[in-house]
Amino acid sequence: MPDATLLSVERLSVSIGPTRPLDDVGFALAKGEILGVVGESGAGKSLTAMAVMGLLPLIGGRIDSGAVRFDGIDLARLPEEAYRKLRGRRIGLITQNPMTSLDPILRVGAQIDQVSRLHMGLDPAAARARSIDLMGRLKIPEPLAVHDLYPHQLSGGMKQRVVIAMALAADPDLIVADEPTTALDVTVQAQIIQLLVDLVRDRKLSLMLITHDMGVVAQACDRVAVMYGGRVVERGEVGAIFAQPRHPYTRALIGCIPRPGMAPGALKGIPGTVPSVSRYPSGCRFHPRCGQAQPRCHEVVPSFEGGPTGDGVACHFPSGVPS
Ligand code: SF4
Ligand code: MG
């Protein structure tokens, strides 16, 4: 585990009714670090973010076991009252769809102002100045004019910049961004990720960046946790994982990154379908889709070799199968 750990999730298991969508999930995020949490939809990434944000009760979810520690605070046992002070102030959230964060009937500038007024006690003029400065840093053209607009008057990319400004407005320590660019045009996606990364680096914040795209991980992240079927299957430093991915699923995700010069439509997904939480396969949950699955994979759950938060992989044959 890195020295200055800000957030650690250890052996986290979450249930929703009779299902167990997160099973023994863990990772650590150091101060100033950008961690990618990557996997297809249905892997449990958003649920992990909700567990960190204390929002599981909204969807009937519950932490069965494990710990979520943020700067010495045990979030898994934090009363909602205390959580409310933490959210926005110390942990900022960026969701996939900006309209879940924006109020359609309030001017966007007022919505950014609100965050620093509420959490930092700024007066209206100071809050407005702060918002306009942030909007400028997010390369929102004419921030003074945009401050007075309503969300529907902005493009998707501009709306998402406003949401990022809101997440940053109270100067939090940690940003949790759940697929922040998925709803946007491909050309806008990389720009917004870069703006977010630059701001996070500049302020030495920590970022948990959820994505289904290994290209985004390569562009933005220091470390990565690969999730599949409600578990973490591989964790490590981004350079090391790209140089030598050990889990077949990690290799498959890397194989899905579009490359320059690739014909449109040439991009192939990973064959097979994501398992449903109510019917997880036995043994290794990836076995029905794994090209190197052996009889043992059908029966025995591969244990994670790196401990609860360290680097490592959960696969019986991380170096391939002997031929
Ligand atoms: Fe494939 Fe077996 Fe490794 Fe699972 S444990 S990823 S099925 S080789
Ligand atoms: Mg999701």
From TrEMBL:
Record's keyword terms, sorted: ATP-binding, Cell membrane, Membrane, Nucleotide-binding, Transport
UniProt xrefs under PROSITE patterns: ABC_TRANSPORTER_1, ABC_TRANSPORTER_2
SMART domains: AAA (SM00382)
GO biological process, one term: peptide transport
GO CC terms in record: plasma membrane
Membrane topology: Peripheral membrane protein
Stored InterPro entries: AAA+_ATPase, ABC_Ni/Peptide_Import, ABC_transporter-like_ATP-bd, ABC_transporter-like_CS, Oligopep_ABC_C, P-loop_NTPase
Broad class of the protein's primary localization: membrane
Transmembrane regions: none
Ribosomal protein in keyword set: no
Domain called ABC transporter: residue spans: 7-254
GO function term, MF aspect, one: ATP hydrolysis activity
Domain of life: Bacteria
Keyword Transferase: no
Cellular compartments annotated: Cell inner membrane
Family per record: Belongs to the ABC transporter superfamily.
NCBIfam families cross-referenced by the UniProt entry: oligo_HPY
Official protein name in the record: ABC transporter ATP-binding protein
Lineage, opening ranks: Bacteria, Pseudomonadati, Pseudomonadota, Alphaproteobacteria, Rhodospirillales
